[in-house]
């Protein structure tokens, strides 16, 4: 009887521990995505030396600043994988 109770307690603890770990990883992934969004860099297509951390207009030619592709992102246009 005591062995069954101990086994049930161990099972309950194990399930709680492993389910909590999965939720934390999901939260960390969402936070990483938010940080990457905030770390975006914008530049002018005509004046690449003009950069900003938020969208806006180029002070030299008044064109819209465009988001620079992240070094880690892999955009594959024109072909499929």
From TrEMBL:
GO molecular function: metal ion binding
Ranges for domain Heavy metal binding: 42-68
Keyword Signal listed: yes
Signal peptide span: 1-22
InterPro entries on file: HMBD (IPR045800)
Any single Pfam family the record assigns to this protein: HMBD
Top-rank taxon: Bacteria
Assigned keywords, A-Z: Signal
Protein name: Heavy metal binding domain-containing protein
Species in which this protein is naturally found: Adhaeribacter aerolatus
Phylogenetic placement of the source organism: Bacteria, Pseudomonadati, Bacteroidota, Cytophagia, Cytophagales
């Amino acid at each position: 009887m005591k062995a069954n109770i101990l086994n049930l307690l161990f099972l309950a603890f194990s399930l709680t521990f492993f389910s909590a770990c999965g939720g934390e990883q999901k939260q960390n992934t969402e936070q990483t995505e938010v940080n990457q969004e905030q770390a975006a860099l914008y530049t002018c297509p005509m004046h690449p030396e003009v950069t900003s951390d938020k969208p806006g207009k180029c002070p030299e030619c008044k064109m819209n600043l465009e988001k620079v592709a992240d070094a880690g992102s892999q955009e594959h246009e024109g072909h499929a994988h």
